[in-house]
Amino acid sequence: MSATVQSRSLLTEADKAELQKICGEAVRFDEPLAAYTSWKIGGPADAWISAESESQLAGVMRFCLRRKMPWFALGSGSNLLIGDGGIRGLVLRLAGDFTEIALRDDATHVTVQAGASASMALVTAKAASLGAIGIGSLAGIPGTVGGSLRMNAGTDFEMGDFVREVWVQSPSKPEPHAVSIQYFYRHTTLARDAIVSRVSLAFERGDPKTVREEMQSRLVRRKATQPIALPNAGSCFRNPEGDKAARLIEAVGAKGWREGGAEVSPLHANFINNVNGASAKDVAMLLARVRREVYDRLGVELQLEVHLVGVFTDE
Ligand SMILES: Cc1cc2nc3c(=O)[nH]c(=O)nc-3n(C[C@H](O)[C@H](O)[C@H](O)COP(=O)(O)OP(=O)(O)OC[C@H]3O[C@@H](n4cnc5c(N)ncnc54)[C@H](O)[C@@H]3O)c2cc1C
């Protein structure tokens, strides 16, 4: 189903010229965002910026402060439903220096220092090869380090269990600085106006072969139980205390429900797949229908795990 929502850009021609001065080739205007999300859904960003270094990011942050410009941090877009009307202001992706990963090990510990846009797949594979105990819990999460930090992503163990230090940048404090954060189930106290630039993680060190085998068996289990080959954003709803969202959604018979090009996965009820050019509106309507049915029939109010961002309404 094609999206028809449109909104006006917040950027003036002077803003565009200034952003080009700060970012050079790394800024694009009215850039469609669907390609940057695992759902393959989302309208255009007024400006899409791929920042290569902490100093370039600091320049963008200063611009945002001066112009009171809204901005949004985009990781690998694996937990996002971006509205068909896109995102007003700046969408910031981190690249270049922010993809670096450095590992150290001693007799007892493995430490990982990673830029915020390093992929979790690479971090987990490298850390496993040094025997980082618990890393299997973070394996198979198709996100970046920064996005996974913001989400406190994980399975039985979560990012927050391993974090040693986090550096962020923000419009009010553009240079990288360390912050202390609290971690909860799929959310954290990381300030809304902070973009994570670097993270250091620490793991106890075990036998690399055992750690790798455990990680491998988790990846195999994932493949069998999740529709990982289809465009989706993983689990849409958080698990309610003491229960599983997937179990509740399956119990109301929602597997296979469709809205436009969106379908509740027949394999894993908490996943919604984009099976045929779904719009954000299709997915949002399906999410609402599932949530309503679970509440009406089972009395449980499901909370979204995926973040809904940008413009959803027709203007
Ligand atoms: C097939 C599949 C399986 C999944 N399995 C799991 C799982 O087992 N466990 C789990 O927890 N999640 C899972 N997810 C969800 C998702 O992969 C995680 O939430 C992931 O950590 C999101 O990272 P991202 O880089 O894609 O973030 P995005 O989706 O790009 O962004 C998510 C949030 O983080 C913010 N953000 C991104 N980068 C930064 C940054 N540098 N600084 C500050 N904020 C930032 C964004 O603004 C947004 O609010 C799965 C998703 C898929 C598609």
Could you explain the architecture of this structure?
The protein is of the alpha+beta class. The protein folds into three domains: 13-97, Uridine Diphospho-n-acetylenolpyruvylglucosamine Reductase, domain 2 (2-Layer Sandwich), CATH 3.30.43.10; 99-225, Uridine Diphospho-n-acetylenolpyruvylglucosamine Reductase, domain 3 (2-Layer Sandwich); 245-309, Uridine Diphospho-n-acetylenolpyruvylglucosamine Reductase, domain 1. The protein is 27% helix and 24% strand. It contains seven helices and 16 strands. The strands form five sheets. A five-stranded antiparallel β-sheet has the order 6-7-12-8-9. It has a four-stranded mixed β-sheet with strand order 1-2-5-3. A three-stranded antiparallel β-sheet has the order 13-14-15. Helix 1 packs antiparallel against helix 2. The chain is globular. Bound molecules: flavin-adenine dinucleotide (FAD).
- Record the strand order, biggest sheet: 6-7-12-8-9
Ligand identities: flavin-adenine dinucleotide
**Percentage of residues in helical conformation:** 25-40%
Radius of gyration: 20 Å
Span between N and C termini? Answer: 18 Å
Q: How many β strands by DSSP?
A: 16
Report the sheet with the most strands, covering strand number, pairing sense and barrel closure: 5 strands, antiparallel
Give the CATH architecture of the largest domain.
2-Layer Sandwich
What name does CATH use for the topology of the largest domain?
A: Uridine Diphospho-n-acetylenolpyruvylglucosamine Reductase, domain 3
Query: Number of domains in the coordinates?
Result: 3
SSE run = HEEHEEEEEHHEEEEEHHEEEHE
Instruction: Specify the number of helices.
Output: 7
Strand content: 15-25%
Mean pLDDT: 96
Derived from helix and strand composition plus strand pairing, the structural class reads alpha+beta
- Morphology: globular
Low-confidence stretches: none
